[in-house]
Design a protein that fits this description.
34% of the residues lie in helices and 18% in strands. With 422 residues, the chain is of the alpha/beta class. Strands 1, 2, 3, 4, 5, 6, 7, 8, 13, 14 and 15 form an eleven-stranded mixed β-sheet that branches. A two-stranded antiparallel ribbon has the order 9-10. Strands 11-12 form a two-stranded antiparallel sheet. The protein is globular. The longest helix has 24 residues. 49% of the residues are buried. It folds into two domains: 31 residues; 345 residues, Alkaline Phosphatase, subunit A (3-Layer(aba) Sandwich), CATH 3.40.720. Helix 3 packs across helix 14, helix 5 runs parallel beside helix 16 and helix 12 packs parallel to helix 14. Bound molecules: zinc ion. The site of zinc ion (ZN) has 5 residues, from helix 13.
Length: 422
């Protein structure tokens, strides 16, 4: 190109930029009719309304006069509502179809990861569904996934993998290694080394083959970190791709993490680092952050762990909102895949209750009563997921859609897709 045509191109670009300014984000992002440049979706696994109440009670130190004024960061978001969670084949979903619904806008069967409802769990593949993360990658945005569970666990998996069986974590890890997701943080090293190898934490590999995926990630230019101190040393300005896996299986519960010698990063620290890396992309980013072990604490019926992991998740929400507050170009959505455990915050003792006590207990009772339409049976040994609606909160451009009464989990996908202009 000669000097004259080069300066003509330069002037033309200036004119295009000047022309796009009045239209805001939309025309900045070449062809995308976007409301938001970035979307951060935070999912509290197993976090229903009672889990939020419990977290507030804990934050208030179980002090009623404190409780009157205590708030979670997610309580302060601009919009809020509630979401139905049923799957294609059950009133009670598990994380696989619930996360699939949010990632793709489609209902599927329990146990199925981002394939449609023609999939027969553990038997036959269905049709692959395109996820919001894949749309973001195709549009040139950066993407990130953070969880406190194994990164191959159902909730994060539904954003990048397509399998008929959520337990096929070797295959899910394979698919992650081909996904181009720029920032990957969580647990689950056991599915990234061969079956006869030990992973970087010294534990046995759990893959069904001999492949070492860590080598694959390294050859794709990822920075690899396996502990908190290496993670803290990562310079976001100099890092384009990051794989941080800190445990062989799930990351620790917050109660254990915060008291352990060599601390893994917290969910909030991982969120902060991820936004610093991903926001270098001028086209924007999509980031999913999962507080994955609120659910496990629910299965265990462990009140303390539910409360503390929910509060740790809320700290990650604070990081996301802090990031979003810097420019008004980020949609932040907070929700859950389902409630877990049927958490009941009932008084410990009826007599003491009548005198004014509030000690909550975690129980689904032991009563069995029959009714004309439904039997009320609460004798199950293990607490599990429930069919109740879950909370949703949102702030930023595109958040208004969240306040229209009950949403279905598939609409979370639509809201994010519309915000990003896909
Ligand atoms: Zn669960």
């Amino acid at each position: 190109m000669n000097t004259r045509s080069r300066s003509a191109v330069f002037l033309l670009s200036l004119a295009i930029i000047a022309f796009s300014i009045p239209f805001g984000i939309a025309d900045d992002l070449a062809g995308r009719n976007a409301l938001a440049k970035n979307v951060i979706l935070l999912i509290g696994d197993g976090m229903g309304f009672p889990q939020l109440t419990l977290a507030r009670i804990d934050k208030a130190g179980e002090n009623l006069s404190e409780y009157a004024s205590v708030e979670l960061f997610m309580d302060r978001m601009e919009q809020s509502g509630y979401v139905s969670t049923f799957s294609a084949n059950s009133f009670v979903t598990d994380s696989a179809p619930a996360s699939t619904a949010m990632a793709t806008g489609h209902k599927t069967n329990n146990g199925v990861i981002s394939q449609d409802e023609t999939a027969i769990p553990k038997e036959m593949d269905g049709k692959n569904l395109t996820t919001i993360l894949e749309m973001a990658e195709n549009a040139g945005l950066s993407t990130g996934l953070i969880t406190t569970t194994r990164i191959t666990h159902a909730t994060p998996a539904a954003f990048y993998a397509h399998v008929d069986n959520r337990d096929n974590e070797s295959e899910i890890a394979d698919q992650l290694s081909k996904s181009n997701v720029e920032v990957i943080l969580g647990g689950g090293l056991q599915y990234f080394v061969g079956k006869n190898e030990t992973d970087p934490t010294g534990k046995e590999g759990k893959r069904n083959d001999d492949r070492n995926l860590l080598a694959d990630f390294e050859s794709q230019g990822y920075a690899l970190v396996y502990n908190g101190s290496a993670f803290q040393k990562i310079d976001a300005n100099k890092t384009e791709k990051l794989l941080g896996l800190f445990e062989s299986s799930h990351m620790q519960y917050e109660l254990e993490r915060s008291s352990s010698q060599e601390m893994d990063p917290s969910l909030a620290e991982m969120t902060k680092k991820a936004t610093a890396i991903l926001s270098k992309n001028a086209r924007g980013f999509f980031l999913m952050v999962e507080g994955g072990r609120i659910d496990h604490a629910g299965h265990e019926r462990n009140l303390s762990k539910i409360a503390v992991d929910t509060l740790a998740f809320d700290e990650a929400v604070r990081e996301a909102l802090d990031f979003a507050s810097k420019n008004n170009d980020t949609l932040v959505v907070v929700t859950a895949d389902h409630e877990c455990g049927g958490l009941v915050l009932q008084p410990m003792d009826l007599e003491v209750y009548e005198e004014g006590s509030i000690d909550p207990i975690f129980a689904s009772g032991t009563a069995r009563t029959s009714g004309p339409r439904y039997d009320f049976i609460t004798e199950m040994d293990e607490a599990t997921h429930t069919a109740v609606d879950v909370p949703v909160m949102a702030s930023g451009p595109g958040a208004e859609k969240v306040s229209h009464g009950k949403l279905d989990n598939t609409q979370i996908f639509e809201i994010m897709k519309e915000a990003l202009g896909f």
